[in-house]
């Protein structure tokens, strides 16, 4: 397929593309085709002048634009036909009665030129295969032998004029190569306008996707930063709460111990003028804790209470098996506080 010469559409130079794709090379330029068109215009003017240069028809002809070319690059069938005569080629209308009487199978021809309104394109046989060399396509389109007749019939139904190219076409590399091999086409070429529109749409979609990804990346970074800040604040609050709880716990234990001291001194009768020493206060506090311990964990019937040794600082001590947990000590402190409050109420009531 790469060896096939295929000019793509530029402006309205479809007649030039049609001829060059037919001949498989850059045989004609817009300047050369314009020269042929001017020559045809001059021949027509001379024929009109034969009727008199002062005639109304002649003056009208001079005022009309050229029928063989225009400023957009369009060229008439007469220009194309005269250009092919240089190479000894002739155009015959495919659906004319003269050609139809010949009953020639289209696959036995070598090439066709198709025209609809102001567009021209070539269908040519290269090697043993047919190709649609329309300049509006992104590349040559392979046409099977069985589809060729249907393709031409479809063009006629759409309003195309089809011309059979008669004569020997110039030799070309693609024709020689495709005489030896056959090609396969996996994807048919698209119209140039469709491809450009598709590429434009893909660029727009890519741009939109990049914008979305950029926006998501930005928001994702913001979300991550915000989450880190929230986690830091939560940890800070948690540390503050733990510190507050520890402080509250220490204050509660301190108040409970102070309350228990008052409770012990009130619960045990004292004679007026008698002052409890620190050693007596320690023993009474120890007796109170033992009493609370026995209420929560009654001793076995045969067991005998053992005196708990004390440290030099006066703190409570016990064997490893009888050691009180922090939770038990806290519970005992709270219970002692409640006892202080109840005893105060009883004392006030007696008074």
Overall 3D geometry? rod-shaped
The major sheet is characterized as: 6 strands, antiparallel
Low-confidence stretches: 259-274, 302-323
Task: Give the helices and strands as they follow along the chain.
Answer: HHHHEHEEEEHEHHHH
List keywords for this structure.
single chain, about 350 residues, alpha+beta, Cathepsin B, Chain A, six-stranded antiparallel β-sheet, 10 helices, about 10% strand, rod-shaped, ubiquitinyl hydrolase 1, Josephin, ubl conjugation pathway, transcription, Ataxin-3
Question: What features would you describe in this structure?
Answer:
- By secondary structure, the chain is an alpha+beta fold.
- It has a domain at 14-194: Alpha-Beta Complex (Cathepsin B, Chain A).
- The chain is built from ten helices and six strands; from the N terminus they run H-H-H-H-E-H-E-E-E-E-H-E-H-H-H-H.
- The protein has helices spanning 14-23, 30-49, 56-63, 77-85, 97-100, 145-157, 173-178, 192-267, 278-296, 326-350, and strands spanning 90-93, 111-116, 119-126, 129-132, 141-143, 161-166.
- It has a six-stranded antiparallel beta sheet with strand order 1-6-2-3-4-5, sandwiched between helices.
- Helix 8 (192-267) crosses helix 9 (278-296) and helix 8 crosses helix 10 (326-350).
- The longest helix is centred in the middle third of the chain and has 76 residues, at 192-267.
- It is rod-shaped.
- Mean pLDDT is 77; it is low at 259-274 and 302-323.
